[in-house]
From TrEMBL, chain A:
<comment type="similarity">
    <text>Belongs to the ABC-2 integral membrane protein family.</text>
</comment>
<dbReference type="GO" id="GO:0043190">
    <property type="term" value="C:ATP-binding cassette (ABC) transporter complex"/>
</dbReference>
<dbReference type="InterPro" id="IPR013525">
    <property type="entry name" value="ABC2_TM"/>
</dbReference>
<keyword id="KW-0046">Antibiotic resistance</keyword>
<dbReference type="Pfam" id="PF01061">
    <property type="entry name" value="ABC2_membrane"/>
</dbReference>
<feature type="transmembrane region" description="Helical">
    <location>
        <begin position="185"/>
        <end position="206"/>
    </location>
</feature>
<keyword id="KW-0812">Transmembrane</keyword>
<keyword id="KW-0472">Membrane</keyword>
<feature type="transmembrane region" description="Helical">
    <location>
        <begin position="253"/>
        <end position="271"/>
    </location>
</feature>
Automatic annotation (TrEMBL), chain B:
<dbReference type="InterPro" id="IPR050763">
    <property type="entry name" value="ABC_transporter_ATP-binding"/>
</dbReference>
<feature type="domain" description="ABC transporter">
    <location>
        <begin position="21"/>
        <end position="246"/>
    </location>
</feature>
<dbReference type="GO" id="GO:0016887">
    <property type="term" value="F:ATP hydrolysis activity"/>
</dbReference>
<keyword id="KW-1003">Cell membrane</keyword>
<keyword id="KW-0067">ATP-binding</keyword>
<dbReference type="InterPro" id="IPR017871">
    <property type="entry name" value="ABC_transporter-like_CS"/>
</dbReference>
<dbReference type="Pfam" id="PF00005">
    <property type="entry name" value="ABC_tran"/>
</dbReference>
<dbReference type="InterPro" id="IPR003593">
    <property type="entry name" value="AAA+_ATPase"/>
</dbReference>
<keyword id="KW-0472">Membrane</keyword>
Length: 277, 306
């Protein structure tokens, strides 16, 4: 055993670039994601199960503007799914990795933080796409929900989804810095995610909610993500039944982008490899 | 003009000839209490140095400051010629760290983890070689969540030396290892030393320190109370021998620095001397005395609160 472990003589080559480590991180994050049953169930099965349950119970109902319930609900549950694969998955996984010393290992290896975040972002991108690829065909073929009408609506769907996932990711990183055990952070994130769904017009028509709920939700990203999704899936005339009487694309982009920036600033200020001592 | 001074070896810089670790007056406080209280220490290149000390003596804090992951409140520190507080990636690449946890995802196998982290180093040791060096061949395909405590420690050791470090920090590396694994680990450390690496380890096992270390430093109450090769630690304490024998059915005991004189007197008597033994303090006796003395000194210095 003695002779087989030679020390590299100086000078040693530079360590691999942040980009190369980022690529490895994406692969690792995905492998881990799919090995954690709880994550997979929460992120993938939840939107699908919700769609099946709510369609079974409320399938005959209509939402504001004579929109069939399943049409309205698909937009909401797609938005929820994005929140789960970004905000919830990232927030809980970072809190756990910090608690069990995985981040400490990365710090000791001199891992560039940007490579770590790129790994998380890659995971969100792939899992979100996979989840939507599961949810949308189910809605289309099992519940006859129309897909975005044309290229322009698909583009709307695209930018809303990307911006929403981005906001969810940075906010997930931000909340992972909360004090407390990983278990308590996980519980907190789940609670926020559930309440947000009710406030943001996922289960109920947004205009049917009490105004204080609407006003609270209007400050937070999920409401705008949901509204943006409706603008991609629902016909133009349904816009008249939104709060402002229009889809408010400008405001949607603005609020989501603002949350991306707020989240990024919080991350930059609070991200730590180690738990506070 | 001629010069008689020997030219330095090509590629040798000042940073390479200075000690691997040098600290002066290291200070770290938590909530007003000094955990590390003016620690001076130097570890030469190629040396295996063991830090001994009771729990809470400041060993882990000291190591973490040297690793550049904890800020110090005072003192001067150089690790491989660089202040750890500002050490960058190139500096970090020269260090290996075995901390108290393995810090790896529970759902990955031993081989997967080593293969993954190989990508963080410029010239990683091959995974198979590492697995063999820590004796985890049987467990290469096993997920971390199914490893025993001792097997996790071995994985941590493998991760710590993966990047061919010049300087390796090991914080209680053998805690939880069975005797076979510990001996295997000792072999690994000897191998590292033979290859020219510097090793700084903390341990609670005195036999381990005696076995591995060129020098041992005893830390108590945040200070270095003694530093010497394991056989010379606490030289004054060691000079005292204890002579024991049985006389009239009772055990008699004399502590002396010159046991020969005592023995001569005893043996000059007419009969046999039953139960005669001469003992010197073991490393453990010396260690316990040093730690106890430091603790008493601190209490005295702070004044009795009662």
């Amino acid at each position: 055993m003695t002779a087989v472990l030679p020390v590299t003589p100086a000078p040693r080559p530079a360590p691999p670039s942040a980009a190369r480590i980022a690529v490895r991180r994406v692969g690792l994050e995905l492998r881990l994601f799919f090995r954690e049953r709880q994550q997979v169930v929460f992120s993938f099965a939840y939107p699908v199960i919700m769609l099946v349950i709510f369609a079974a119970v409320l399938g005959g109902d209509e939402r504001p503007g004579d929109v069939p319930f399943t049409h309205y609900f698909l937009a909401g549950i797609a938005a929820t799914g994005i929140m789960l694969t970004s905000f919830q998955a990232i927030g809980t996984s970072i809190a756990t990795e910090r608690e069990n010393g995985q981040l400490e290992r990365l710090q000791l290896l001199g891992t560039p933080p940007v490579a770590y975040f790129a790994g998380k972002a890659g995971q969100v991108l792939v899992t979100t796409a996979a989840q939507l690829a599961l949810l949308l065909p189910l809605a289309r073929y099992a519940y006859d929900v129309p897909m975005p009408a044309d290229l322009q609506h698909w583009l709307t769907f695209g930018w809303v989804a990307v911006l929403g996932a981005l906001a969810g990711t940075v906010l997930g990183v931000a909340v992972s810095a909360l004090r407390g055990s990983a278990a308590s952070v996980t519980t907190g994130i789940s609670a926020v995610a559930i309440v947000l769904q009710f406030f943001s017009g996922v289960f109920f028509g947004f205009t049917e909610l009490p105004s204080w709920m609407q006003q609270t939700a209007a400050l937070l990203p999920l409401k705008w993500l949901t509204q943006g999704m409706r603008s991609a899936f629902l016909p133009e005339q349904a816009a008249a039944f939104e709060v402002a009487g229009s889809w408010e694309h400008g405001r949607t982009a603005l609020v989501l982008a603002a949350w991306v920036i707020i989240g990024a600033v919080i991350c930059a200020r609070t991200f730590r490899w180690r738990r506070a001592t | 003009m001629t010069t008689t001074q020997a030219a330095p070896r090509p590629g040798t810089t000042a940073a390479q000839t200075e000690p691997a670790v040098r600290m002066r007056g290291l200070l770290k406080r938590y909530g007003g209490r000094a955990v590390v209280d003016g620690l001076d220490l130097e570890v030469a290149r190629g040396e295996v140095f063991a830090l001994l000390g009771p729990n809470g003596a400041g060993k882990t804090t000291t190591i973490e400051i040297l690793e550049g992951v904890r800020k110090r409140d005072g003192g001067e520190v150089r690790v491989l010629g660089v202040d750890p507080a500002v050490g960058g990636r190139a500096w970090r690449a020269r260090l290996g760290v075995v901390s108290q946890g393995e810090g790896a995802a529970q759902e990955l196998s031993v081989r997967e983890i080593l293969d993954h982290f190989a990508g963080y180093h410029a010239t990683p040791r091959p995974t198979a070689e590492l697995i063999a060096a820590v004796g985890l061949e049987e467990k290469a395909g096993t997920r971390v969540s199914r490893l025993s405590g001792g097997q996790r420690r071995r994985l941590a050791v493998a991760l710590g030396v993966q990047g061919r470090p010049e300087l390796v920090f090991l914080d209680e590396p053998t805690t939880g290892m069975d005797p076979v694994a510990r001996r295997q680990f000792w072999e690994l450390i000897r191998g590292l030393r033979a290859d020219g690496a510097t090793v700084l380890l903390t341990t609670h096992y005195l036999d381990e320190a005696a076995e591995l270390a060129d020098r041992v430093g005893v830390v108590a109450e945040g200070r270095l109370v003694d530093v010497a090769p394991p056989g010379e630690l606490g030289a004054e304490l060691r000079r005292a021998a204890t002579v024991r024998w049985t006389e009239d059915g009772a055990v008699r005991e004399v502590r002396t620095e010159s046991p020969a004189a005592v023995l001569r007197d005893l043996l000059a008597g007419p009969g046999d001397v039953p139960g005669l033994t001469v003992t010197r303090p073991t490393l453990e006796d010396v260690y316990l005395s040093l730690v106890a003395a430091a603790s008493t000194a601190r209490t005295a210095a702070e004044g009795d609160p009662r």
